[in-house]
Predict the structure.
Amino acid sequence: MFFKDDTICAIATAMIDAGIGIIRISGDNAINITDKIYIDAKGNHSLKKYESHTINYGFIVDENETKVDEIMISIMKAPRSYTKEDVVEINSHGGRLIMESILNLLIRNGCRIAEPGEFTKRAFLNGRIDLTRAEAVMDLIHAKNDFSMKNSELQLSGKLFNKIEDLRKEILYEMAYIESAIDDPENYDLTDYDTRLSTQNSKWIKSLEKLIESSDEGIIRKDGIRTAIIGKPNAGKSSLLNKLAGEEKAIVTDIEGTTRDIIEENIRLGDIILKVMDTAGIRDTEDKIEKIGVDLALKSANNADLILYIIDSTDKAFSNENRIKDLIRDKHAIILLNKNDRTESINVLENDIHNIYGKNIPVIKTSMVDETGIDELKKIITDMFFSGDIIPKEEIYVTNIRQKEALINALESLNKVKLSVDACMSEDFYTIDLMNAYAFLGEIIGKEVDEDLIEEIFSKFCMGK
Ligand code: GDP
């Protein structure tokens, strides 16, 4: 069943031993069920008497009225709560065992364990937030940099929703006007209507194009630049990685993967994130366990947004690699002439590189020993990918692929409207495309989405949210 109206519970804080843990309960029976396991300082089951939006002292007790924990408990009665249902939050001690014991008591008394994201899903299904805001909640929790945090907050405040809703209202108005004119030509005049619609439509198209354009940058700002470091064994790939990671006190995380060769590392350079791909291979090279050269790295480089091609400038056997030439032709690429500290034995010069790979490719002399070129590398990457400030002031970026796809579909429909208007087709011809654009925009805010999609979106949430 899509909407379940039972009462759910979950541990909302992390499952680690901590000072405080929060157990959240939501649903029609939240107060009744929790009251069975709660007593106040005088030993009374008094939860039902408390006013909404208060926090109260007391104890959790089991079936024998034996105290399990000393707690603070808050009550938020419907509809003024996160889910628009009755919500109770127990602030217990943050030990895993204690939190689990309380959760088990709730389940024994009639609660069901919440699915991941189910609290937010209820907030959405109960009409408190639209889908862009729900997705912003998830983005905020998973934000890896200041940009994501700020953008999610803007989205949470309804900035994207308002933009989309305004567009939808305008499209709806025109659709209604056309329908009325077709039904009631005496009162609604369609003379010169084409001109009016054409002006409106161009405005909508521009606004969608701007949002779509922002998304390429937005997604990269939020999720990071997929980066491949390639080069012959011993060129200095892992030294570069360590330098980037170490110097900036990087958040180095292994992204879950089923095989070692799809492991990525997120390296934070100030506000930019580099998602360095295939570093398992690079690290192995450093360990000298397995020498991995250009071949393996080439595979991941095909999917990268950025290629860092590192060349040992003291390499006497350096020669043109056609495969690399082909690979970097249409990509953002930077060539690093490494080991520049060994001036006495430099063999590969900037000029040679420009002759092989073209004049336009940035070439930096680097040394992983004295850190030459690292700042320049960061600056080139920033200029390559970002226009203006990295952290937007009030501008909202679309950072979600689902939303981007819906925008592209809406734009396609509006472009069809333009073709029909330009070809002087009759009005009823393009109302269908207007309708489609309206529906695609509706998908973004969650007005026209099917159950499966909703399930999929919320299943990516964490427990207790
Ligand atoms: P990889 O095989 O491409 O990952 O290369 P490594 O990063 O493992 O480097 C190979 C060797 O070159 C190591 O001994 C490094 O210490 C050394 N190395 C890397 N970068 C530099 C550099 O800029 N200058 C000098 N002198 N040695 C370097």
